[in-house]
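seq as requested:
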Amino acid sequence: MKTIRIELSSDVDMEEFIKVIGFASESISDYKTENNLVMIDVEDNANEDHISTAVKNLAEKYVSARRIEKNIYQNRKEIERYYKEFGSIYYFDEGMASLSGVSLFLYRYFENIFESKLKEIAGQMECNIVTKLFPVLLPVSCYKKTGYLKRSPQYAIFCCSAIENLDLLHNINDLDENEYKEIIDHPSYALSPSACFHVYEEFKNKILNKNTIVTFTQSVFRNEGRFNFTEFGRMRDYHVREIVFIGDEDFVTFSRERMLDITKSFIQEIDLDAKIQIASDPFILPEMQKFKKIQTIDKSKYELQISYEKGKYISAASFNLHGNAFSHPFAFSVKDKKTVSGCIGYGLERLVFAFLSQYGENHENWPKSIKQAYILENGGTEQSGL
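struct tokens:
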């Protein structure tokens, strides 16, 4: 084992860069940082020049967007103690968790509260509101059409069936994990990295009679990188309460702004230490970097970030304007309108984790509205993690 020391520019957003450092090379086994110095552990036979170049090229992609990101809202709260351990959450593996007891209650609470608040704005506009239930698997053909594989390929997780050959499958149980690739077929499906993609596939080539809001809870899957799953709230398999707006630009923009206002009010109501920032997607390919700057300048993406430790935040929701990025390739539209789309996604597990980090599992310490909802559902009894 040897260590490569790489000095990066002081303009690099190190917090964001280290989340993707593993994608620079599979030869990287571990890393440490000290200010803008990165120390990378690699095998003795690794090509140092190749890895150094790859790391520097990747780091350059995390310079420009940071300079123009800023808060548009902040609810400050002095927190004496952050909670770290939760008996109602069980971790199966890195990035995989189950919820029970108070955590499951909070999951359902957050899932339902944003749907009910959505109806507040839907009643102010002439539009359809549709509730959906989508499958987990996403056809690869749809995945490619979204353009996501061009923008953020690092998140991709594909699904492969075993090949239909009994001679080869006969000894499948005896195979080593490294041998599975010999008996799996080419992937026709993927696990969707974004909750809204199934909407566009279902609405493909359709003409809607009026502006439309689609809402649902969807399973989402992302390969966040092998060094990231020990980070608080970082999941490879999680759920999103999704809201998709389809219609003319005024309708989509207004809808997002109203849900932003409602979210701000909710954060104040339950007094979370949180902020909303102008943000950009994690583009890592060189040809896609221009979109980071476009997103931040156009304010097409906002993120709700909640603190889970002093000075550290977790992104728990995003508020996005798409323009015609999906309405054009999928050819859906609203009758007599120039059609665009937008979406809002609330990461349910992340909301639960972040809330518990600030308030803990004892419901007596919770904000009044959530405490009352818990008492109403459980009669005020403590719920174990089982």
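Residues 203 and 382 are 45 Å apart (CA to CA).
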